[in-house]
């Protein structure tokens, strides 16, 4: 079976409902926490480390929910939402590989914010570079990622870690 290498908004919404990778497996969050509109490229080869990559996008408009509350009179997308989007994508990658379990963010190494997403922006692009995956009883993805707004890099994260768990009872 040939794997799909791009996913539409509808595909990602199916994933948020547990329909893409099957019940009990990797899911993206539902809107409003879904921070991706489409995955334009996903591959098990390529990227900085030659072990896989994802490119995803989020369309920005001034009506997005977070601009109204972060901050009143000074609207900006919270940096933690861009970081969460990168974790979402690492978990999606693990599910796309066919691994079982529910995704949980497990941490990150160094995270840097050196720009912002304003309501006047048009598009956020996420680039995820897979460093390593462990696909045994422990399912773990480790990646580096960057966030760009309208072509300018504004965040970076090293050592993004996401695990898939068949049971989260003791997590």
UniProtKB/TrEMBL annotation:
Keyword ATP-binding: no
Active-site residues (renumbered): 70
InterPro entries (UniProt xref): FabA (IPR010083), FabA_FabZ (IPR013114), HotDog_dom_sf (IPR029069)
Pathway as given in its UniProt record: Lipid metabolism; fatty acid biosynthesis
Main location: cytoplasm
Annotated Gene3D superfamilies: Hotdog Thioesterase
SUPFAM superfamilies assigned to the protein according to its UniProt record, in alphabetical order: Thioesterase/thiol ester dehydrase-isomerase
Alphabetized UniProt keyword annotations: Cytoplasm, Fatty acid biosynthesis, Fatty acid metabolism, Isomerase, Lipid biosynthesis, Lipid metabolism, Lyase
Pfam families: FabA
GO molecular function: (3R)-hydroxyacyl-[acyl-carrier-protein] dehydratase activity
UniProt-annotated location(s): Cytoplasm
UniProt superkingdom: Bacteria
CDD domains to which the protein is assigned, alphabetical: FabA
Reactions mediated catalytically: a (3R)-hydroxyacyl-[ACP] = a (2E)-enoyl-[ACP] + H2O; (2E)-decenoyl-[ACP] = (3Z)-decenoyl-[ACP]; (3R)-hydroxydecanoyl-[ACP] = (2E)-decenoyl-[ACP] + H2O
Assembly with partners or alone: Homodimer.
Role of this protein: Necessary for the introduction of cis unsaturation into fatty acids. Catalyzes the dehydration of (3R)-3-hydroxydecanoyl-ACP to E-(2)-decenoyl-ACP and then its isomerization to Z-(3)-decenoyl-ACP. Can catalyze the dehydratase reaction for beta-hydroxyacyl-ACPs with saturated chain lengths up to 16:0, being most active on intermediate chain length.
PANTHER family: 3-HYDROXYACYL-[ACYL-CARRIER-PROTEIN] DEHYDRATASE, 3-HYDROXYDECANOYL-[ACYL-CARRIER-PROTEIN] DEHYDRATASE
Family assignment from sequence similarity: Belongs to the thioester dehydratase family. FabA subfamily.
Name of the featured protein: 3-hydroxydecanoyl-[acyl-carrier-protein] dehydratase
UniProt source species: Stutzerimonas tarimensis
Phylogenetic classification of the source organism: Bacteria, Pseudomonadati, Pseudomonadota, Gammaproteobacteria, Pseudomonadales
